[in-house]
Every structure is written in structure tokens, then in C-alpha cells.
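Sample log: TonB-dependent receptor.
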Amino acid sequence: MRQPSPRRLIHLAALTACSSLALGAQAQGQSQPAEPAPPAAEAASAPAGNVLSPVVVSGSRIQSRGFTQPTPTTRLVAADLDKTAKPNLFNAIAELPALQGSTGRTTSTNSTSSGIQGLSSLSLRGLGPIRTLTLLDGQRVVGANVTGVTDVSQFPQLLVQQVDVVTGGASASYGSDAVGGVVNFITDKRFTGFKANIEGGQTNYGDDENATLQAAWGRGFMAGRAHLTASVEYSRERGVPSPRFGGAGANGRTWFKNPAFQVRPISQTGDGKPQYTFIENAQQFQYSKYGLITNGPLQGTAFGKDGVPYTFQYGSNGVPTGTGAVTGCVTPFCVGGDLSGTVGGGTTLGMNMTRQVAYTRGSFELNDDHEVFFSLNYGKVDSRFTPNPGAAKNGNLTIQCSNPFLPASIVAACAANNITSFAYGVANAIFPKDIEVNPVRTQLRAVVGANGRFSALGKDWTYDGYAAHGQNTIDLRVANMTLNARYNAAIDAVRGPNNTIVCRNAAAAASGCVPLNIIGDVPIDPAAWAYIAPANGPFQHSRQRQSVAGINVNGEPFSLWAGPVAVAVGAEARREQYYVLADPYGNGVTADSPNSAAYPADPLLNTSVGNNWYAGNYHNARGAYHVKEAYLELNAPMFKSSQFGEGSLNLAARHTNYSTSGNIDSWKLGGLWKTGLDGLRLRAVTSKDVRAPNLSELYAAPVVINNTVNYQGTTLTVQQRTIGNTQLRPETGRNTTFGLVLAQPKWAPGFSASIDYFDIKVNDVISSLNAQQLVDLCVAGNQEVCAAMDLVSPTKYVTVQAFNLASMRNKGFDLEAVYRFGLAGLGLPGNMTLRGLATNTRSFKTNSGVVGTIPTEAAGVNLGNTPKWKGQFSQSWETDTASLTLSQRWISDGVYSNEFIECQTNCPVSTLTHPTILNNQMKGALYWDIGGSYRVSKQVTVYFKVDNLTNVDPVAAPQTGTGYGINPFLYDVLGRQYRVGARLAF
């Protein structure tokens, strides 16, 4: 048997020890597709055969053969995506190290009103989905949210041929929103035959059962001149049900332990002890499961079965003081005690999500040079989840001692203590159903276009153009939600005629109020439940529309001394519009209030501003803008020699006109040097990128409420007018990247690696501040903010709206490597591929622009979404019939906040900007995944996948109030997941 060379063993050992490789990812210009092939950069520039099949280089508009771009681009091909075996490709992409802060079905499940629940949107560098441009075949897709971000779950995923992640600014090439970069999903437009995927699975805990069915068909007609493809997909992930009250994790997840921060008042931190302390088994002492008296001489009396009173067991050996405080506890938490009423563990860990997608594309070659095409896409995503059980009232209720639902012993105690009422808190565990939030997004999108080639000025040119119209309809319904005013009226009961129990408020009683007993574990009266939680709960109907047309032309009009200059030029026009219609109880009554009959008038409810629901108070809004832009990009070879290699410049400029914010320019300047050293390339690119204000920032729903602010030492009552700001300017980013690429040197065939440094600065960041912060900015001299308020006239007001106040800067390193080699030298079949991808965020500072604050450092804050290190590594063995892949996902250790000062004793006095904390360490995580496949026949391949093989628990993410207790942006919160499936190909 032939022994492997020492050189090969050294390469293998070194790569395995230091970096090996990402979940099937590969960098353009630095690594290869999963199947044996040239490096990605070479494959992208290889002869395409038919000019009607353009070269795809997602970091650029240049489509010239031989072109290698300087912008780092990570590529995943279909074989890589198959290995992940995810029900939704979004999850495979979101795990890449450069993707940080993406939203999916495990995020925002504690939210009723955010609007992003169930939205699968990608975020690069932690800059947010609104600064990451997600494309389908290089085309914009209508947004699935008022912020304009797309929902990847609505994409046709089985036909995706590759996904390119451009980790540098790309606004000059692609337009607005590409501040963090671009994610481009590229479909197989010439697929021929039939293929299908059938998959099912569940977690280690027997929940989140999932099933995926996908099928695609393609065929050529008329001697290949016409081609038609179609696909249908159905995917159901049933989610993790809420375990409701008590802090127990869902279905045996014992890791949940009610984590929280105890936070002492700053005024008490002169004793040398830290202000913040991490605790587990946090007990809110302002309510209990079935009711707790929280103030006065009866404080500490709780109620149980049939309303029988008992002495509540406070944690921390706490003793109620009668003033609302509890000795030994720090508001609002004790540690331990009676935890039956805690609600933090009752948040859904993973939404119940159903995807339905249908897609078709057809093309016809008019002749050898010109082709026309169309595509139609239907995508529907239906999500359901519980943000919290019950509807906790944190000691803010008042119960009259005359309430007929009170036991006689409490009535007597009231008389003995000479009180007529007491403060009361309750988790409302008697509610028969938990809140259920149900966002449904339905996309309809049609595209027509043409591509081909022509001759002009003695040169050959290629073109592609398209026009698209898309619409996303988002219906957000909330079930089992209570109306605050009705709840308060229903619990305020008195004895009426004939000793009946009625609502005290006469107007409420006349309009249908039914008394509600919240004293103890007493079955709720169905009539009372129907009164406080009407069947027609909060509702929001919104419609996003996008019309876009664009054309791109590519050619090589002239040559320099080192070769032809490649040019891309194009233009695009786009119109975005939306409207939102909300229920009258949340929005207030307007002329266009929907289903007014289903939301009858009620004298208890506020008909002018709405905000009547416990949560989910949506408001009407509408707006539109249009964009016109043109760009020019060129790649100019600067030198070419056997001694010094090849060098080229890549330049791009784009001029954009927004109907709302006027003109702005973006540009890119990059260079690539293929050095004379074997396989070594140097690349650098710097760009000015833009993000225009989105529709929700420009045309936010107007809401008017009363508030108080402090102005020059005087407390003023003002109208707080929340509106959009049509005077917003685009955000501007400066993205600089430079790095080294080692692409398959002769001394290490099959090996490629790269390291890139990135530095992203974003100015004029659009942010919203509260009324007091805006007043402080005005006093400090910000005239733009001063113009949005009046604190002198009799009708005083502060306009709360977004302003271009903040700034951000994110910098760090990307590392990527791949080593592919055969095993024949070891006497084994097949090939081995070692891969590694990692992102090191060295610094991510945000300056809010708020008076009295300092820039905050987010890098390494594991309560957020930008850890110091995020990495993926995989080791794959493949033969013609079988494959086995072992992979790792890694998040480095971090802190709760970089602004904390860690100390145990002799702590300095805490400040707002630098609080003290007992322990500021938050553990990272290492997850192992394993998967494999076996080709049963030429047509059938079976596969399996186990994610989080060792069932690593999520790290506790403490909050300062009733919170999630976990961070799904970084950590796996579902546990070990099993999936099996079969792929069919005919």
C-alpha cells in the first residue's frame, strides 16, 4: 500500500488543528464546490457554453469570463445545502459565522407587537436584516414586513442551485440596503427531469415534529428552445408547546431555571457590593399564580384552591414589610420560594410554522441570441406561538374589601386593620386559554424578462432585464387577548339586587360587563371570559407592494496593456408601498376601521387613540416611495507578467434618486493581485454604501398619548405624538475589506484558505428615542429635534419619531479554509473534505447620539448577537454511494455587557453607564452535528441528520424583568434534533 506523503500529513494535521471548514461553505476565489471541480472563482469564470446562461458572480454585476472579484463571497452549492438537511434553507444560511442577528421561528416568540414574529430574515455582521440585501436570482423580492425585509421561507428552495453570501458592502452594484452585504439565492433555471425530497424528524424531547415534502420538475420543449420548470413545497414544523406556569421547561427540558438579574438601586451601591447579581429560580414577588396581596397590612396573603387564603412563601427567606417591599429580596425578585406562578418558561421555544410554496419558470429562445422568460411564485407562511401564559398583573390591581368574591376571613381582616382596599397581583392562571399570536404572510410575485447578446461598436455585449411585481399580504391575528378596561371593570364586583354579584361600574354593567373572580384557583365564568377576551382579538392587515424593473448590460468594449476591460452598466426603477389596517380597539375608531360590527362601541374603551388591549395594540399606517438609479461598474486589468502575476481594479459607482430623501451616490473601489507566488492572491475593496429609510420609518402609524417630561428643571405634561419622519436621510456606510487568499498551491493541491479584515462604519443611523431623550437633545442644541416639539405654548407636545442620530462601527476578521484529498493513498475509498469558517468580531460600537450616554461595545456580548468568535467546522467523507459528515458549530465565551464592571467586594459606586456586577461571564457553546447519506439506487438516496448531537443546553440569558431567559439568536434552544429523509431523482 502506498503511504501518504509527509507533506500531505502535515497539511491535514495543520488544517484540522486550526481551522477546518464551514458547513459546506466555500469562498469565491478561495475554495471549491462540494463535488470535485475547479475552485469556485475558476468555476464561475469557466466558459458557460450558451451565452444565455450568464456567469453568476454575486459580489459584482460583472459577468465576464475570467473575472475574479475582490469582494469576499462565501458560496454554498446544492450539495452543501443537502448535507444540512434542514426543513428550511434559512436555518442553514443563518448558521454561517458572518450571519449574526437573523430572525427565525425561535426568535421573538416572547413578542406580540414587534411585527417580525415568524419572519425568516437574514442579518450580516449583526447590522440587522434591514441592512442586509436578500435577493432571488439577483432580483429584489417584495418585503414581508413594514421594514421591507424579505422572508426566505417564501422562496422556492428545492430549485436553489447555490447561495452566495457577499460579506462586503455592495450598494454600488445592487443598490440600497446592502450595507452589511448581500445574500443571493440562485435557482437552477435549466433543471431537467424530476426530483423530490421527503423528510421528517423531531427533537430529543418528542416535540417539534416536522415534515417536509418537496418536488420539482423541468423539461425542454421545441428542440430545447423552450424550457419549463416547476416546484411545489410543503413543510410543517409543529413547534414546542408552552409548558405554561411554574418555570418548568417544555417536555422535560430541565435546563430552564428562571434566570434573572437582581438589580439594586444605584443609590445603595456605596456599600462596596455589586449592583447586579445573576440569580436562578427568580421569583416575582408582585404576583402569584392565583393571586397575592402585595401591599398594606395583609401583604403576603396568597390565594389557592377555591380562594382559600394562605401565607405566601417568599424566596430568599423574605418577609413582607407592608409597604410593598420584601426583606431579603431586591425588587422585583426573590430567589426560590413559591415558583408556581412564574411565567418566563411559558414562552414558546419554537413556533408552529407551516410553509407552502409553488413556483414556476418558463423561458423561450427567440433565436440563438435572445431569450424571454417569466416566473411566478406563491409563498405562504403560517406561524403560531404563545408569547406568555395568562396575563400577569404585577401588583398594580386594586381590590376593594367589599368585593363579594373575597373569603370572609379577608373581609374581617380588612375591618380589623381599618382598610377598605388592597394592592393585588396575579398571573391569571385561571384563564382557560393562553395568548396565541398567528402571523400569516402570503406572497404573490410575477417576473417577466429577457436576456441575450448583441453587437455594438464592434464588440459583443450581453444583457439581462426584468420587470417584477410582488405583493405580500400579512394578516396578524391574536387570540385570547384581554381588554384592560373590561378586565378592570369585571374584577371590581359588588353585591347587586337580590344578592347577585354585578360589576360596580354602572356604564360597564349596562354594556354587558360580567363579574370576574380572580381570587384563587376558581374556574372562570365562561361569560366573564367572553366579556374580557372577545373572540375578535387584536388584528392587523397589511399589504406590501413592490414594482421593479431593471436592466444590466455587460461587455468588453476595449483593452488595456494587460487585457480587456470588462464593463457592466445598468439602471433600475422601483416603487415600494404599504398600508396597514388595524382593529378599532387597538388603533382607535377611524373611517376605515375594519369589521366595525365585530368590534362594537363600548363606553369603557378609548375610541380616539385605541391601546385598549393588554398587548397587541396595532395602528393604521400607509405610505409609498419610488427610486430611480443607474450604475456603472468596470474591471480593469492593470498588469500581467510571469514574474509579478496579474493585477486588476474593480470600480463601481451608482447614482440613486429617492422620492423622499433626494439624491445620493454610492461607490466601490477594489483591487485583486494574483501574485507571482504560487496560489497567493491579495485583495482589497472599500465602498460607500447606503440604506434608505424604509416605509415604516418614513410613515410610521400616528399615535397620540399623554406623557410627562422634565424640561429645564420643570415637569411638564405633554402630548407625545408618535409619527413617521419623511425628512429622514439615508444611512451611509463605509465598508473596507482587505485580505489574503491561498488558492490550491502546487505544494498543497486541494487546499485553499483566506483571511480578510473588515471595517464597517455606518453614519446617520436611523433610530428612535423616547420623549425625554428628545427633550434632552433639544436642550443640548440639536435644532432638528427642537423643530419637532413645542414646550412653550399652551398645547405642549413632543413628536416622537426616528432621526438620523446614531452611528455604528463593526470590525474584525473572517477566516475560511478547505482541504480536499483522496483516501486512496491510505487504502480507503472516497475523498475527504475538511472545512472551516470563522468570524472574529473585534469591536462593534454603537453611539446612540443620546445626551449623557457613551458608545456601547457589543462585540463579545452573548446576550446580543455578535460574539467574539463564531465558527463552523466540518469533516466530510464521500464516495460514489455514501457520505458521512461530522460538523461543529462554535460560539466563544462572552460577557453580559462590556459596560459592566465586574467585582465582588470593594466595588466602586455604580453609574448608569458603568454598573457593577458580581459575575460578568457568559459561557459560549460548542455543538456537534452528524449526518450521512446512502445511494440506494440511481434514483433514490436516503439520508439522516442529528443536530446538537450531545444535546447541549442553552446558556442562561438573564433579564432584568420577566423575560425569555434564553438567547435564541446565538444558542440552540430546541435541543437534539433527529431527521431522516429520502431524495428522489429521475
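Observation: The CA atoms of residues 344 and 964 lie 6 Å apart.
Observation: The mean pLDDT is 90.
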